[in-house]
Amino acid sequence: MNRLQDKTAIITGGAGEIGFAAARKFVEEGARVMLVDLDEEGLKKKAGELAPDQVQYIQADVSQSKDVQAYVKAALDAFGHIDVFFNNAGIEGAVHSIPEYPEEDFQKVVDVNVKGVFLGMKYVMPHMLERKKGSIIITSSVAGLIGNPGMVAYITSKHAVIGIMRTAAAEAAGHGVRVNSVHPGVIDSRMMESLEKGMNPDDPQSVHEAFSQQVPLGRYGKEEEIAHLVTFLASDEASYITGSLYVADGGMTIS
Ligand SMILES: NC(=O)c1ccc[n+]([C@@H]2O[C@H](COP(=O)([O-])OP(=O)(O)OC[C@H]3O[C@@H](n4cnc5c(N)ncnc54)[C@H](O)[C@@H]3O)[C@@H](O)[C@H]2O)c1
Question: 100 C-alpha to center of ligand 1: Å?
């Protein structure tokens, strides 16, 4: 249980379900983590569940440059260096067809899910490039690989971060820094409940059942199942892996 011994990590969306599942696993594996989230109460509560000497947190909006610089500084002040960056915060946005999709809602999703990921790379990468080591994991989604009606902003954003991942991987490979993306399918979570309600406010359960039927393994995933994958990519076990897309979707995108 020491695959991340002596490593330090920043996790954005650290008060959320996937981010916190990764934090729990990172801590179990010996890492010290800086949780970053917009939700200060959530951060306080979640940080309280982890070993106090291995966790710190900072409230920040990932779409704001000054906040991103502040979380990077907080991690460097706390740990001296950054080994792992789980660039994970994201929002699902509203559910509407393209003609009905409000422009402001589209912009908001792009600001958090694309600009937020970009800003994280912009301010974390220099430290890793200088040290000539580090692992960055970006959370995309199966929504980065396929389309779905009603989710234009989210799907656009999750396709876009693959571009960020590939560019960063190409720029960083010569400096010993690895960059990969993870693509969760439908996870039993607040975010999926919100999307199910958006798709059918009168009968969200029917959406849940329809999605489950699209999964060859026959069920929604659990956030821990994503955390295991992220932990592998963060660890030195993944030392020859960069620029790759890791799908954990129960087979949803097989065909
Ligand atoms: N839940 C799923 O089924 C699923 C599937 C595929 C991909 N994902 C992706 O996984 C990532 C984590 O999702 P989750 O399921 O844990 O959702 P979540 O809503 O539980 O967690 C997301 C966290 O991000 C935080 N956040 C939102 N906007 C922010 C901002 N501007 N600045 C800082 N923090 C902000 C939220 O407060 C929340 O704690 C997201 O990128 C999401 O798109 C989720």
Answer: 24
| Mean pLDDT calculated for residue range 163-181 | 99
120 Cβ inside 6 Å of ligand 1:
no
CATH architecture of 8-185+222-248: 3-Layer(aba) Sandwich (3.40)
Long-range contacts of 72-78 (CB under 8 A, 24+ apart): 72/10, 72/123, 72/124, 72/127, 74/34, 75/8, 75/10, 75/34, 76/127, 78/8, 78/32, 78/34
Residues known to be catalytic = 154
Domain coordinates of the chain in residue numbers?
Answer: 8-185+222-248, 187-220
- pLDDT for 37-57, tens place per residue? 999 999 999 999 999 999 999
Cβ atoms 249, 215 nearer than 8 A: yes
Q: Which atom of ligand 1 is nearest to the CA of 17?
A: 16
Residue nearest to atom 25 of ligand 1 (CA): 13
Residue 183's H or E segment, with its range, is strand 177-184
